[in-house]
Write a structure and sequence with these properties.
Blueprint (H helix, E strand, L loop, with lengths): L9 H18 L5 H22 L7 H30 L21 H35 L6 E3 L6 H10 L9 H15 L4 E3 L3 H28 L1
Antiparallel strand pairs: 1-2
Length: about 240
């Protein structure tokens, strides 16, 4: 078979499979955006360690290294580009109804076609921004490796993997705020998309930083799980 299948790529493959499962569950039937978020966080967990796991194999061939870089970006596009957009689509149809909260009317426009087109534009823009950011990073990283080598210390633009913490945090707001957080989610998609392609410098987290982010994600997942169980029990 084509491809590579040793342990260095297992986490990347798992990240992609988690993302596909999240997309399917988010869009299934009436939509399950809050379940989709768990798969987004699982993909984020896999991505946090896939590079470190890959680097433990010291005898990787140039082809194996290049393959790892390519599939990592492709998996990231699905997990942190497409999946958050699908969650956004799902939350627009089902989100607040689960909790008996009145739907946000978008300044009285309700289900107006113009609003639907605006939402579609935001979703498409977000995925496109993630794609551009990942492709640009690959090109620039290849050029940097030729001149500098080693690991980079900063990123230009917000890494797409940040989606694994940003959007679960926003979804948690629905359990705190007494109104529909759907417009907040769309605003976050728009702002995050711009940050993906911006020229801001973001320091690359070290081992300690990675574990802190994993801890934050674990707390978010636990709170979401408890909240979902509580809502299910009440209803």
């Amino acid at each position: 078979m084509l491809g590579f299948y040793d342990y260095t790529v297992w986490l990347t493959y798992l990240s992609l499979l988690s993302a596909v499962a999240g997309i399917c569950i988010s869009l299934h039937a009436a939509g399950h955006p809050y379940l989709g978020v768990f798969f987004l966080m699982l993909s984020g967990l896999c991505d946090a360690f896939d590079g470190r796991v890959a680097r433990t194999k010291k005898d990787r061939s140039p082809a194996e290294k290049a393959f790892g870089i390519q599939i990592d970006s492709l998996a990231d596009l699905v997990a942190f580009g497409v999946l958050p957009a699908c969650i956004g689509e799902a939350i627009s149809t089902v989100g607040p109804q689960i909790y008996g909260i009145s739907r946000f009317s978008f300044f009285g426009l309700g289900g107006d076609r113009a609003v639907s087109m605006l939402i579609l534009f935001i979703l498409m823009f977000y995925v496109l921004a993630a794609l551009i950011r990942l492709a640009y990073f690959n090109v620039m990283e290849e050029e940097r490796q030729k001149t500098e080598g080693g690991c980079r210390k900063t990123y230009i633009g917000l890494p797409v993997t940040s989606a694994a913490l940003i959007f679960p945090s926003i979804m948690l707001l629905q359990y705190i705020l007494p109104f529909d957080i759907t417009p907040i989610y769309y605003l976050a998609l728009l702002v995050t998309g711009f940050l993906f392609v911006s020229k801001i410098q973001v320091k690359k987290p070290g081992v300690c930083g990675v574990w802190i982010m994993v801890g934050i994600g674990a707390v978010e997942a636990l709170i979401l799980l408890l909240a979902l169980l509580l809502v299910r029990h009440i209803h």
